[in-house]
């Protein structure tokens, strides 16, 4: 499958003249009169940081039409690719991850980032063009990071439960908005966070900020143009590449929400209040500050989940859906169809009605012999040793600060404000369920665990990664009332910190070829830019073991016999149960509860069906 995907992608990326072939080429952002500029991007960092000009605008936006652009539909594979060869996969970046940096003026929380290689019918969503000369590539083909040849997709992390976060290799079906990312229009001079946004981390030709010597870098004046993205989502259907089912079932993730996030509001407000002569429209910022964060998800939905290959002629299809804390909408209808299950539902929402559908859907068989039962692993996170907290004990420029962070533009104080996430073969979670504050030499005990079901003959991966919050003061200076939800700033010095980007603690990656190979206790150092993480800002000379060291234990749970299934003629009626949410699921999504703002006559009432 990966070989086929690689061949398909490189077929797309192979230059034919200057334009990618085959497929319908997308809009080109090149130059100061490119489509992104026409649609409303201003390329003025100062206005972006303060939320005066939009971070995103609709692609091919007709500002003369009072109606908002219709939502778009896209399918593809969750994956990244290599910008030199076009090969699927890139060990330097993750296809799915929480963002490193996001501008407070356009967010209420940091994003979940999902990169998607679109199916041929949706290649038009890739903006820009490919060229054999790397310096002539534009838009989605210009970067050497996670979004090369892919559609970058985002959704605020507090909007979607972590139990529904996708994984690399998944097949994904999205309904959402096709937009330009107005915050990036050039080649970055530093890698660090893949979400470089602020000056000196990827902003070319810095406009009015070019007069500030410590910010302006002439090397950043190589304009490649904005890239296209797909967000926010109205609906997601994701079929897992490797199911986490205890019974070798296929697994689908279903998400629908009326919470468009602040990014969606920015796009709407930019449509109604476009820039005036390429300068900020003050009504746009007012609209973002006062508008309702709500989107219409009315329509008829239909998704299909194919079951694994039928194990025997006498096997019967079984299927069910687990409710992970839905509210305001109907349960989906599950109907057997061939060797799989059809998931359907109808939604009819009214203005400001909150609706969230969070489900896991499974399809399998009532025939599961012992040799095909997945191995049940229990992963316990024992401790995290903090080698470097990433906050500087001295002011910027004083001796000693460089030993705590590779970022030169920051004035921060210990303790470090950390967000650290784990991913055990697609089972996403967050240590301490939010921000935890640390100093050098601390040892913290997560007291958290996760269960992993590994199919026979398969392996699994453990990943940890995150950010250290340094943008609290930026939020205050730009008029943002509340900090981003993931970084509330628990210690008194947090609100006084300022930097041009969040620090990156590094990542832990363990690949296990089999369940048996992973058993035992493991102590693993996080990466630095000299080991396995080019984005890490942990100074390798000061902290050669990375800024944290993780100890975790993997044990086998002997319950395979209880999961054996034997077919019987009496079992011809499948399991169609839609299970209610557990107390644990409700607690897990509490942080993602939708807050619907009061509608102030800024956004028109609208109803639309997904296309």
Characterise the protein shown here:
- The chain has 611 residues and is mainly beta.
- It has seven helices and 28 strands.
- The chain has helices at 2-13, 35-39, 45-49, 261-272, 282-290, 472-477, 583-588; strands at residues 15-16, 19-20, 56-58, 72-78, 96-98, 111-118, 151-156, 171-181, 228-239, 250-257, 299-306, 317-323, 333-336, 340-347, 356-365, 375-386, 410-411, 416-424, 427-430, 436-438, 443-444, 448-454, 460-468, 498-499, 508-512, 520-525, 548-557, 578-579.
- The strands form six sheets. Strands 4-6-7-9-8 form a five-stranded mixed barrel.
- The two termini are 28 Å apart.
- Residues 1-23, 189-204, 208-216 and 585-611 have low confidence and may be disordered.
Task: Give the arrangement of secondary structure elements.
Blueprint: H1 2-13, E1 15-16, E2 19-20, H2 35-39, H3 45-49, E3 56-58, E4 72-78, E5 96-98, E6 111-118, E7 151-156, E8 171-181, E9 228-239, E10 250-257, H4 261-272, H5 282-290, E11 299-306, E12 317-323, E13 333-336, E14 340-347, E15 356-365, E16 375-386, E17 410-411, E18 416-424, E19 427-430, E20 436-438, E21 443-444, E22 448-454, E23 460-468, H6 472-477, E24 498-499, E25 508-512, E26 520-525, E27 548-557, E28 578-579, H7 583-588
Parallel strand pairs: 7-9, 12-28
Antiparallel strand pairs: 1-2, 3-8, 4-6, 4-8, 5-6, 6-7, 8-9, 9-10, 10-15, 11-14, 12-15, 13-14, 16-21, 16-22, 16-27, 17-24, 18-19, 18-20, 18-23, 23-25, 26-27
């Amino acid at each position: 499958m990966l070989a086929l995907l690689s061949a398909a992608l490189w077929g797309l990326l192979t230059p034919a003249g200057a334009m990618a072939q085959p497929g319908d080429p997308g809009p080109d952002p090149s130059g100061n009169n490119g489509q992104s500029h026409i649609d409303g991007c201003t390329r003025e960092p100062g206005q972006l940081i303060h939320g005066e000009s939009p971070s995103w605008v609709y692609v091919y936006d007709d500002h003369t039409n009072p109606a908002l652009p219709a939502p778009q539909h896209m399918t593809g594979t969750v994956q990244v690719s290599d910008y030199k060869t076009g090969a699927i996969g890139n060990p330097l970046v993750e296809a799915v991850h929480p963002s490193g940096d996001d501008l407070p003026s356009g967010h209420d929380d940091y994003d979940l980032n999902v990169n998607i290689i679109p199916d041929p019918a949706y290649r038009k969503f890739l903006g820009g063009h490919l060229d054999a000369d790397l310096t002539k590539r534009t838009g989605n083909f210009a970067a050497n990071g996670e979004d090369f040849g892919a559609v970058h997709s985002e959704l605020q992390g507090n909007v979607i439960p972590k139990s529904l976060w996708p994984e690399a290799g998944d097949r994904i079906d999205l309904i959402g908005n096709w937009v330009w990312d107005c915050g990036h229009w050039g080649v970055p001079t530093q890698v660090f966070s893949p979400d470089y946004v602020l000056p000196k981390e990827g902003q070319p030709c810095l406009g009015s900020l070019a007069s500030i010597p410590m910010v302006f870098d002439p090397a950043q004046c190589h304009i490649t143009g904005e890239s296209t993205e797909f967000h926010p989502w109205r609906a997601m259907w994701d079929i897992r590449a490797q199911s986490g089912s205890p019974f070798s079932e296929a697994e689908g993730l279903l998400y629908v929400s009326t919470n468009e996030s602040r990014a969606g509001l920015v796009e709407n407000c930019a449509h109604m209040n476009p820039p005036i002569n390429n300068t900020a429209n003050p009504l746009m910022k007012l609209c973002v500050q006062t508008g309702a964060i709500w989107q219409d998800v009315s329509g008829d939905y239909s998704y299909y989940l194919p079951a694994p290959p039928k194990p025997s002629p006498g096997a019967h299809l079984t299927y069910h859906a687990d409710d992970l804390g839905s509210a305001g909408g109907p349960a989906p209808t599950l109907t057997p169809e061939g060797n799989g299950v059809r998931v359907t539902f109808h939604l009819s929402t009214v203005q400001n009605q909150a609706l969230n559908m969070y489900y896991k859907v499974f399809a399998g068989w009532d025939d599961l012999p012992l040799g095909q039962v997945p191995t049940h692993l229990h992963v316990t996170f024992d401790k995290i040793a903090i080698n470097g907290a990433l906050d500087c004990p001295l002011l910027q420029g004083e001796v000693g600060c460089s030993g705590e962070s590779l970022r030169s533009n920051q004035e921060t104080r210990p303790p470090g404000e950390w967000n650290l996430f784990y991913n055990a073969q697609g089972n996403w979670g967050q240590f301490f369920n939010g921000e935890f504050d640390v100093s050098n030499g601390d040892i913290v005990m997560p007291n958290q665990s996760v269960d992993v079901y590994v199919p026979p003959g398969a392996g699994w991966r453990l990943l940890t990664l995150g950010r250290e919050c340094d943008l609290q003061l930026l939020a205050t200076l730009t008029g943002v009332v509340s900090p981003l939800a993931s970084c509330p700033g628990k210690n008194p010095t947090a609100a006084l910190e300022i930097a041009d980007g969040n620090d990156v603690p590094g990542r832990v990656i363990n690949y296990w070829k089999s369940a048996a190979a992973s058993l035992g206790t493991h102590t693993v150092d996080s990466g630095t830019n000299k080991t396995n993480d080019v984005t890490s800002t942990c100074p390798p000379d000061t902290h050669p073991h990375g800024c944290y060291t993780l100890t975790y234990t993997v044990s086998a749970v002997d319950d395979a016999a209880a999961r054996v299934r034997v077919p019987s003629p009496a079992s011809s009626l499948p399991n169609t149960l839609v299970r209610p949410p557990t107390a644990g699921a409700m607690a897990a999504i509490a942080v993602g509860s939708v807050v619907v703002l009061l509608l102030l006559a800024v956004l028109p009432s609208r109803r639309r069906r997904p296309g």
